[in-house]
Design brief:
Blueprint (H helix, E strand, L loop, with lengths): L2 H12 L17 H20 L10 H9 L2
Length: about 70
């Protein structure tokens, strides 16, 4: 969940909502948002692997990174 979604979820509780709130993220295939979501997931995985001392850091080639950005 990104900051905007967290803010919206938190706001519902501040205005008095007492029941659980479910946030759905809908990302259309082939959109820039899909590319950004993929890039964020890759960055999160890379950061986790760098912080995890028990595993070697992940490496990504220039071609793989360009593929993520272009969506291919």
């Amino acid at each position: 969940m990104d900051a905007v979604e967290e803010q919206a979820s938190d706001r519902t509780h501040r205005i008095g909502q007492e029941h659980p709130v479910t946030v759905y993220r809908i990302v259309a295939k082939g959109t820039i948002e899909e590319k950004i979501t993929s890039l964020h997931a890759w960055k999160k995985d890379l950061a986790e692997s760098l912080l995890d001392e028990s595993s070697a850091p992940s490496h990504i080639s220039t071609d793989e990174l360009i593929g993520i950005i272009r969506g291919g």
